[in-house]
Amino acid sequence: MAFGGYPPPEHLLGDLGMEAELTTAETAWVRTRATPFVAAPDGGVRAGVLATLVDIVGGAIAARVLQPDWMATADLTVQRVGPVLGPCVEARGSVLRRGRTTLVIEALVVAVHEDGRTVEVDGRPADPVAWASMTFAVLPARDPVPKVTMPAGLPSRWAFTGGGLQAPIHDTVGIDVIDAAAGRLSVAVRPYLHNSFGAVQGGVIGMLVEAAGAEALGAARGGDGSGVVVTDLQIAYLALGRVGPVVSSSRVLEAGADGRCSAVVELRDAGADDRLMTVANVVAVPTASLVGATS
Amino acid sequence: MSAVRSDAADVPDVDQERRRYVSDYFRLERWEVPSDDVARPPVVRGRAPVDDHTRGPGGGLRTGGLLTDLDSLCGFTSGLAVLPEWIVTTSLLATVSELRHVGPLGFRVDVVRRGRSSVVTAVDVVDEGAAGRHVAAATMTCAVLDPGSMALEFNRPVVVPMPPPQSDPVGPEAFFSIEPGTGPVTRLLLDDRLRNPWGILHGGAVAMLADEAACRAARSVLGASGPNGVAAADAVLNYLRPVRVGPVEARCTVLGTVAGRTVVRVAIHDIGSDDRLTNLGTMVVLAV
Lengths: 295, 288
Fold this sequence. Notes:
Number of domains of chain A: 1
CATH superfamily of chain A: Hotdog Thioesterase
CATH class of chain A: Alpha Beta
Oligomer: heterodimer
Strand content of chain B: 35-45%
CATH topology of chain B: Thiol Ester Dehydrase, Chain A
CATH architecture of chain B: Roll
Shape of chain B: globular
Largest sheet of chain B: 12 strands, antiparallel
CATH class of chain B: Alpha Beta
Strand order of the largest sheet of chain A: 9-1-2-4-5-8-3-12-15-14-13-11-10
């Protein structure tokens, strides 16, 4: 299914095989499979992929709540709070506040089966595996006709269908490592990664932030990006990435022996006078500290 | 020096000294970096000592205190960037990389986005007493608002000197009127001295409540945990609605622990305003 032609037939969201449902006027869920192609070094779903799920669930809710107005994502946070295993992961979002200028959404990510049943542990629903929040800036409509036609009735269910991932997600997105120690990575802007504004989709921004932080922190610890698992992303979206390539830089705050690792990542649109697009805080933990918990 | 004057009828008559009570408690000094370029967004720097009575179990300034300084500095910088309009905080995202501080802490705040309806600042915190070691990084998003009848007058560049040490210091729980207790619910009494110039609960007081509440909730699940107990570190705080009446209650849920990082969801309610949800976020609690 596409809304106003978005996403196009060849698109990352289709290849991630996302299913979604608007369950009430202010709630929705979005689900994807936890395949090895979206896994972090500990085997759990990458924080950047969780950010993509959250971005879609938040966007779906916001588009419905705000129509005919539209929105721009101001910030997104995601935190892993347990082993992020499948078979599928589902982000369940709800509105916290709808104001005149902002909309705030909270989402819990839970492990579910293919049919949507919540995974159980010891006979009861498993605890959430991640928590997330999003803030949207409301963009007042200049045209009373909505940009995107949302389903009239509820619940409303759809799926983004594509050929499926054929390679690890960072390869599929096309993330190139230029200088690992500096967290300098690059991704080309192309329709496959677009959002409905024709710029880089917010979840892809999350994937690049995650990869840049991991490479810098891994290098600071004497290894590479596989030596750490990103658990927390705090992303402030400042400007759209329309031209590209989008290039990251990273500053390690701490890569300590006690296992606490954090970095600040900035993204710039190299084709648009190096305009600052994103500032993000990244927190990671050593992969070795998680392997027992997720395998 | 800066001046904030209010003619608004719904803003309590709180005297000027008491309006600065919260940021003064942590003795935050701040100054605007002079610039001849009027089009350039303001750059503000700050410095705060780490007084013994503000140290937490981690050994340095309690994270609630650090967040109070961030709230004051980022809000101030954002406000200067949008004059003659002013701002209200919508979110504060902070990662704390070091809990042990020698002090003083040094702050640098930059405006990274100035839009029509919002302004975003980024801040770096270093420990000047420990060779500039990184302490924290944060971004704050504020919505631009019409200040109404409140007149905002500043002599630029703005300089606010460091307040003197308190002669009879009290700890943060007592200062912020946080009731003693244990478990997942923690209550704060809304004293007038905790209000900001708009008459609502200061964002720093919200942060201190979140810190204390999250630590109590984590302790109730984890026990004492480390040799010195537990301490709050990273924070996500969404400011949804102003706290106007009180008392204020922080209701916590321990979401899980990953590699020693316990994530606590903190929902703050203004009981006197129909129990409405005013703030929601998470605090990461560490064994220390």
